[in-house]
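Troubleshooting: if your tokenizer reports a length mismatch, compare your output against this known-good record of 314 residues.
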Amino acid sequence: MRADRVFAYGAAAGLLGDLLFGDPRRGHPVAAFGRAASAVERVLYRDHRGRGVLHTVVCAGGAVALGAVASRAVRSSPAASVALTGAATWAVVGGTSLAREAAAIGRALEAGDVEAARARLPHLCGRDPQALDADGIARAVVESVAENTSDAVVGALVWGAVGGVPGLLGFRAVNTLDAMVGHKSPRYRRYGWASARLDDLAGWPGARLTAVLAVVAGGDPRGAVRAWRADAHRHPSPNAGPVEASFAGALGVRLGGTLSYGGRVEHRPVLNGDAGRAVRVTDIQRAVRLSRRVGLLALGVCAAGRLLGKGRTS
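Known-good structure output:
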């Protein structure tokens, strides 16, 4: 079986597995990678960029190498290759867990239980929940759904189409490293620099594809394009900007503004501020549905891109 078909069948199986089962509650491969990365950090850590570069190379390179070795071991068996691709896709995508967490917070807000919603919010994002009222929590959820559609689904599929199983594992490794050490805390400002910059680079194509697909799959294509063009560049993240702006325009809401992380207040620009309204609790489910559509479209685009790319080189 050709490699392009292996990816198409395997990625489809992996997304189906994620839809049916979500993330495992115990023994998740990403959690195992996180523990290994923490062990490497304990050995290598110094408040120095060079040590952070080495940490990134060891951890992300190790994930890519593991994927390459596993792919080579099963390459003579099409069925095993599809199974490996499916298992890797299921391990690295997180669309179902994203939707479940968002929906759980939405249900708590609909029931008027703001405290329950605050308690669940850290499962989804790093905002300070005590600083948020019900509308602020809803906005945080919609923003997280938008950003994680790129990080947890579309970006992984893009790199899977480019690099197969090594691409899938490498992307998730880079994304996980950024979450662990890529933030601008005193401990990681220098040590996490390489992981943060590599995550920006790896996330670039997936973020743009996510924004494009939000335009296609959303309810207001013109609004999504307008918000993307007008506001994406104003966001401090080069990848979250296009995704959140496109989602804001597609949903007809305003995103961005003042937020708090770890006691640090940030004043971010408002996305789709001229045409959007404030986020409501009911917008959480709308964002989840849009995220689902974007993920399915991304599977089709990435599989088709792999097929077309193989055809041109054969």
